[in-house]
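Recap slide: Aromatic amino acid aminotransferase, sequence and predicted structure.
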Amino acid sequence: MFEHIDAYPGDPILSLNEDFAKDPRANKVNLSIGIYYDDEGRLPVMRAVREAEAQLLEAPAAKPYLPMAGLAAYRDAVQSLVFGDDAPARKEGRIATVQTLGGSGALKVGADFIKRYFPGSQVWVSDPTWDNHRFIFERAGFTVGTYPYYDEATGGLQFDAMLSAIRDLPAKSVVLLHACCHNPTGVDLDEAQWIRLIDVIEQRDLLPFIDMAYQGFGAGLDADAFAIRELARRNVPAFVANSFSKNFSLYGERCGALSVICESAQTAVRVLGQLTSAVRANYSNPPTHGATIVARVLTTPALRRSWEEELASMCTRIACMRGAIHERLRGNVPDAMLARYLEQRGMFTYTGLFAAQVDAMRERHGVYLIRSGRMCVAALNERNVEATASAIGDVLSNAFA
Ligand code: LMR
């Protein structure tokens, strides 16, 4: 019966993370998956999350099915955080939001919805992008193409090439964009560039799909949502996936949401209905625990303050580690490859290391990066930064020998 089933070659991120767990070496270093670890190398439970969970334990509640669209308080808190509490689009009821299984769930529900209502559209992702973007949209039945994005020579953005490629796309093309802290490159558009891009999106009648997995890890909670808020302000129809995996350190709770900016409140009701139907067809309704925590933290002033402060301190620690690795690599890494450790934003640096060099770092030194050369700088700490820098120095000097 199953003779024709292919072997799964594995996922470039999650399978590598599983390989890391099996690696018996005591001094191994995991800079592969996009997870924030504290200076002790531990996955933090944020203070506000701990407090919200303690409150929930004090008054245990029954766990009925949630509505298909998710927990109402969570959906409202998501809209407030992503679009701004006073956003006119929100007040006017033009945003349809459903709770989803993480950001990936939001992408899948959105992909299913788009396939149903825009069956002729093609999807365009940045070159490069998070591997799962392509996978999710292809599995939903789309052809996925790329637009220029990263400039390997400078470690920055090829904005003009990006804009001109997007300008040439047919109307109703789906353009997948990263709101902030681009994964894997750490290279973002500035506000002026976003405005020029949104002009093109509007003129060409394109469908932006914004993925915001790292809100709060770039320029701040509000600034990171700049493009989304600008789209909503200009009433440009758009899909927005967001996730609390990283900024709440709630990876395993699968807390995400999909919001769609609609042209009118009446349309938003119908869109919400069809998003809900996509949820029902995939997994019926989402789970309660993580959403209850997030909603409680975001809507309780003391918990919200604590969460924002801790998130800011996580960003400060990442910035320190960027400085620390930069310092240690100086002199061992060509200048052109060095600046990006400081300049690229969020959890990642796109090191410019080749797959063979990454493999050598893993095999010889137990230091794990993604084979594209992506390093999770949010997992660096005072104890592993030295080993990481010397592993990079080693593979570079061997490659150049
Ligand atoms: C990553 O990019 O490492 C994370 O978003 C985890 C994942 O699911 O790939």
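The longest strand covers residues 95-101.
The two ends are 52 Å apart (CA to CA).
(End of recap.)
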